[in-house]
Design goal:
3-stranded mixed sheet; 8 helices
């Protein structure tokens, strides 16, 4: 639970920081004549919503099973990840459209003071990315990882803006739209991450199989139980922050029903007590026919 609380606390901190950064970037973009900075601020507003969604998804995901949700509320985390990924794609599309518009519209070069603003944003957002991604990896939370990539995408957009504005200021006349081209390039990176994260989140919602390494780990744990001859089937799906699985274990066909039942319980206990974040196990006993 401490890891979950860390993730929730991090989402709250990110929410406050994103509100401040969005305000600063949009204001600096308006007064500094830089659309890429305004676009960066708009992308940060998407981060605000994503932090709220991730926080809400995690809060719901840890609610225990009840009568109406016998398998728990873990899917809320995957649904939150889908929503965050869509926000990322929406932000990329919005910035791309406006960047093209600015490229086609003559305008003045950005102001110099937009550069230190962007440098500060890059440092803050990269730090948030590392903290959120570490927490997401610890929890195996797709939603937190998606939110982390929102921070990294913001840092990438800001880095592209920094380079573009620098070119515009150094190049002078004829280079005024360099920051807009930089924003357009950053959109491609943001969109790629959005598609990648959306594919992962949708796979979880649709109960796609987990990695072969996780399956192998589960099989090995179950096979170590005394009385288990072999593992016939093993189906595992991710449900929010945890794993749920059906496993078929082969035992001596001459064993009593009671002994087979005891072995099934031992297999279940072995898996639930492991470090694999398993919270639901269904064990099927199969007689050895060899």
């Amino acid at each position: 639970m401490s890891s979950v609380e860390t993730g929730l606390r991090l989402s709250k901190v990110a929410l406050v920081i994103n509100v401040l950064l969005a305000s600063i970037k949009i204001a600096a973009g308006i007064f500094g004549n830089s659309y890429v900075l305004i676009a960066d601020g708009i992308e940060s507003t998407a981060d605000i919503f994503s932090s709220v969604v991730v926080w809400g998804g995690l809060r719901v995901a840890v609610i225990p099973a009840d009568e109406n949700h016998p398998f728990g509320h873990g899917k809320a985390e995957s649904v939150a990840s889908v929503f965050v990924s869509l926000l990322l794609l929406g932000a990329a599309l919005l910035i791309a459209v406006q960047s093209i518009h600015e490229i086609l519209t003559p305008h003045r070069s950005p102001a110099w003071f937009t550069l230190p603003v962007l440098f500060g944003v890059i440092v803050i957002k990269e730090t948030l990315f590392r903290l959120a991604f570490r927490a997401g990896s610890s929890l195996e939370s797709t939603a937190l990882k998606s939110d982390a990539w929102h921070h990294r995408s913001d840092a990438l957009t800001s880095a592209a803006a920094f380079v573009g504005i620098s070119i515009a200021l150094v190049g002078g006349p004829g280079y005024q739209s360099a920051d807009d081209w930089a924003a357009l390039i950053a959109c491609g990176i943001i969109a790629w991450n959005g598609v990648r994260l959306l594919r992962t989140a949708l796979n979880e919602v649709m109960d796609a199989a987990v990695s072969p390494e996780v399956v192998a780990g589960v099989r090995e744990l179950a096979a170590d139980v005394d009385g288990v001859i072999a593992i016939e089937k093993c189906r595992i799906r991710k449900s929010g922050l945890h794993l749920a699985l059906d496993i078929h274990v082969v035992v001596d066909g001459e064993l009593s029903v009671r002994r087979g039942h005891d072995i099934a319980h031992q297999v279940k206990d072995q898996l639930l007590q492991s470090q694999l974040r398993i919270n639901d196990v269904t064990v099927h006993i199969e007689p050895d026919t060899r």
